[in-house]
Sequence to fold (329 residues):
Amino acid sequence: MPDFVTLGRSGLKVSRLCLGTMNFGNEQWGCDEPTSAKIIDAFLEAGHNFLDTANVYAGGRSEEIVGRAIAARRDEVVLATKGFNPDGPGPNNWGNSRANLTRSLEHSLERLGTDYVDLYQCHAWDSTTPIEETMDVLDGFVRSGKVRYIGCSNWLASQIVEAQHVGKTPLVSLQPQYSLVVRDIEIDILPTCIRHGLGSIVWSPLAGGLLSGKHKRDAAAADSRYGKVNEGDIWEMLKRSLFTEKNFSIVDKVGEVAERLGTSHTAVAIAWTIAQPGVTSSIIGPRTVEQLEDNLAATAVTLDANTLKELDRVSRGPLTYAGFLQRGR
Fold:
């Protein structure tokens, strides 16, 4: 049975793995509705309870697919969604303003087929809206019963502190990018979350699939997003930034550990994230049931202190002065 932990400084119990649904309904590089429903069913049947979506995933189709898939067991699921990104063409259809978040939440509830979400998150920081307005409207959502808890995604440490200072209802979570390849949140953001009562729900634990071990230094796997890139598109740019000798040395070490433990690259990489202080859940994004099963294997992987040190040594970035002070070594 999976472990459950409280989300930040709240009483909400969530599984250590969170099913991310950005692939659902995106048939260009994701999966169709029948496959999405099978993944959701298998995830819940395995005993996990935490699902994350957003108003913009697949143009809203992700929320619709998730809503239909969990309708018969809604109360068993901790359902998270996000607002901020455009929900229409006008100037007031994006951001963390009262106007946009109110509209976005109503649209999300309609697509999800529910009258509440367990966790509602601001998908990004909005420098054009006073934080007092944002926190006030989020507090109103909680008081109305349409939202149980509130969080944020991709915010900086200073922004989290400012929000916690002015908000009547505190944030309980942050969604940051985090993996053996991307560790910069350790310097300031993760410690801030710990001090201010936010659990971290980390996204891209496989570094965009790089840590799955299926790519080679000179060639991406043909069935992956990086195997079908066009010059100048986002996947080509991500490939250039990810496919480096440094990152492949991390992949090699993950493979060594996986072989030693009798498991997969994927399971080791995800297990590393949930072994880190301050991390509540790791967001997985499978496109098939087989990928889901590989992801779920992470919960059975135990990384001892020596193994964690091995992975730390190969993946730690250049030591800055600020990083030295924060780490205390």
Notes: DSSP finds twelve helices and ten strands in the chain. The mean pLDDT is 92. The radius of gyration is 19 Å. Strands lie at 4-6, 13-15, 17-20, 50-52, 78-83, 117-122, 147-153, 173-175, 199-202, 279-284.
